[in-house]
Design brief:
The complex is a heterodimer of chains A (340) and B (236). Chain A contains ten helices and seven strands. Chain A is of the alpha+beta class and 340 residues long. Chain A folds into two domains: 2-144, no CATH class; 159-339, 2-Layer Sandwich (Heat Shock Protein 90). In chain A, α3 packs antiparallel against α4, α4 crosses α5 (107-158) and α6 (162-178) packs antiparallel against α7. Chain B is an alpha/beta fold and 236 residues long. Chain B has two domains: 3-128, Response regulator (Rossmann fold), CATH 3.40.50.2300; 131-232, LytTr DNA-binding domain (OB fold (Dihydrolipoamide Acetyltransferase, E2P)), CATH 2.40.50.1020. Chain B contains seven helices and 15 strands. The chains are: A alpha+beta (340), B alpha/beta (236).
Chain lengths: 340, 236
């Protein structure tokens, strides 16, 4: 819509400019060939305008190469201005009777006038290009902010499944009846997780160490809930330096692994490996692949879509994500590699 | 009376807690604890239990689905952490519903409900087999043969039993309880105030049943059962 309006503005402006020679017509009566040749003047203006608007301003001026922009413009304007002046002299001399007899001593000042004319258009084009750029940048910024806010909101609600919280509390309740020490430990782990969700998660980036602790705590609590027949391993190499990551991206994958990877009746496993060398973070998750029953409608890949979206927001073009099954569909794997 | 029960829950701790509750409840005899409905299915099919504490949210086969394929004699008490399943649970006629985390108090309440239900059922079976019951009337227990009853009328807190020989027995009892104790469909509730011994009805007219010079109304809420009974005993 906006594009159309802008296009119309351009069109109207150029129509006006191309018709303008008629308002200061110098010939005796209208001559079409004369008019067409006169149109060289607005044509040159158009070339100068769009050259600045589409090429010079965005490629040079915006990129900080103001001098090159100025230099090219000076050369361009003087040569084109001179060209136009002599062209008009020649054309008018052909068609306007008595033109040659006129006093053309002030040639230099006339040329200067034409060059100045073109310079005004060149400056206008540059200003317009900058304004347009500023508006689109502003829009993009707003969009990004809105997307971020929305993602945050969604994540606050969904990243940690509320069911996880309830189920864990129920299990801890049961645990208090059998093993008080273990129950206390579980409550401590849960409170650490809550702190992470409530405070750390608000930041755009957090130390990788904290994120790994969070995942490990999650795994600990899941371990309590699962029967002994489920094999759970969690290996993470803590980074040596201060490495930061966007929080709460990997948790969805871990959640997923437990949701689909564990079976109360059959032998099953969840293996989580996280490693980093300072530049790269690799999260490798493998779990036994238990096909969902038809009645299990839980999740429709929404969680995974969110992971993808968050990766795109936080690490555009700096991540790879492979997932699928291997060992005759027995194992599901998901590997994310992030360039930190 | 001892009730045989079993527990199904995919989370070992939750199952363990219920197990400890069942073990300390004197009238419950825990037959088995299972980690999934599939695992329980074989055992329970061969060896039906009275009562099942059944978790709803389980992988592979959910509690609701499992409840649908259970024999009718098995009563179910659902356990779940999520309220939204309550409605579904009542659709499969669960006896009760326990929200996790389950306290022993809640557990015992539900178990008592089951005990009441099984006691009533047992009495019903006894009455139906022996063909008589004792009812309290004027500080005595009066023997009433089921075959002698024509119909029973409800009067606020009392009931009045009309017998074939014309005698009437008044007893302090409510209609709901009476209805539960009497075998179905031999005895059917036809109205808020009447339970009818169906095989003794002389005639049936639209909306009423005839006993000699007495006309008993059939109300809308009980119409279906009554209609079904007559349909199954009518030549056409």
């Amino acid at each position: 819509m906006n594009k159309h309006i802008a296009g119309m503005c351009h069109l109207a402006f150029w129509a006006f400019l191309f018709l303008s020679p008629l308002t200061y017509w110098r010939g005796t009566g209208f001559n079409f060939v004369h008019y067409m040749l006169t149109c060289m003047q607005p044509l040159v203006v158009m070339v100068v305008f769009y050259l600045n608007y589409l090429v010079l301003a965005p490629k040079l001026f915006v990129a900080g190469k103001h001098r090159y922009d100025l230099l090219i413009n000076v050369v361009l304007l003087i040569s084109l201005g001179t060209l136009v002046h002599y062209w008009m002299d020649f054309v008018n001399g052909m068609f306007v009777p008595g033109y040659r007899d006129q006093d053309t001593v002030g040639t230099l000042s006339y040329i200067a006038r034409d060059v100045l004319n073109l310079a005004i258009f060149a400056a206008g084009a540059t200003a317009l290009a900058l304004a347009r750029r500023w508006v689109t940048a502003d829009q993009k910024l707003k969009e990004m902010e809105a997307a971020r806010a929305q993602a945050e909101l969604r994540n606050l609600r969904n990243q940690i499944n509320p069911h996880f919280l309830l189920n864990t509390l129920n299990n801890i309740y049961a645990l208090t009846a059998f093993d008080t020490a273990k129950a206390q430990e579980a409550i401590q782990v849960l409170s650490k997780m809550m702190r992470h969700i409530l405070y750390d998660y608000q930041k755009p980036m957090i130390p990788l160490k904290e994120e790994i602790d969070f995942l490990e705590n999650y795994v600990k609590l899941m371990r309590i809930r699962l029967p002994q027949s489920v094999e759970v391993t969690f290996n993470a190499v803590q980074p040596t330096g201060t490495v930061e990551v966007a929080p709460m991206i990997l948790i969805s994958l871990v959640e997923n692994a437990f949701k689909h990877g564990t079976s109360p009746t059959e032998k099953s496993f969840v293996h989580i490996n996280i490693s980093t060398n300072g530049q790269q973070l690799i999260c490798d998750i493998q779990n036994s692949n238990n096909p969902k029953t038809a009645s299990d409608h839980s999740g429709h890949g929404i969680g995974l879509q969110q992971v993808e979206r968050r990766l795109q927001l936080a690490y555009p073009d700096r991540y790879t994500w492979e997932q699928g099954t291997r060992d005759n569909d027995k194992t599901y794997y998901s590997t994310i590699t992030i360039q930190l | 009376m001892i009730i045989n029960c079993a527990i199904i829950d995919d989370e070992p701790l939750a199952a363990g807690l219920l197990k400890s509750y069942a073990e300390k409840t004197p009238f419950l005899n825990l037959v088995g604890t299972y980690g999934s409905a599939v695992e329980a299915m074989k055992e329970i099919r061969n060896n039906p239990v009275h009562l099942l504490f059944l978790d709803i949210q389980m992988p592979e086969l959910s509690g609701i689905e499992f409840a649908k394929i259970l024999p009718k004699e098995t009563k179910i008490i659902f356990t779940t952490a999520f309220q939204q399943y309550a409605i579904e649970g009542y659709k499969v006629s669960a006896l009760d519903y326990l929200m996790k985390p389950v306290s022993y108090e809640d557990f015992l309440k539900a178990a008592n409900k089951a005990l009441d239900w099984f006691c009533v059922t047992q009495k019903q079976q006894t009455y139906a087999a022996d063909r008589f019951m004792y009812v309290k009337s004027d500080y005595k227990l009066v023997r009433v043969a089921l075959d002698d009853i024509l119909y029973i009328e409800g009067l606020k807190d009392y009931i009045r039993i009309y017998l074939q020989d014309g005698t009437k027995i008044m007893s302090l009892m409510n209609m709901k309880k009476m209805e539960d104790y009497l075998p179905r469909p031999e005895f059917l509730r036809t109205h808020r105030s009447y339970i009818v011994h169906m095989s003794k009805a002389e005639a049936i007219e639209r909306f009423r049943i005839v006993f000699g010079d007495q006309y008993l109304p059939i109300s809308d809420s009980y119409k279906e059962d009554v209609q079904q009974y007559f349909d199954s005993h009518t030549l056409s």
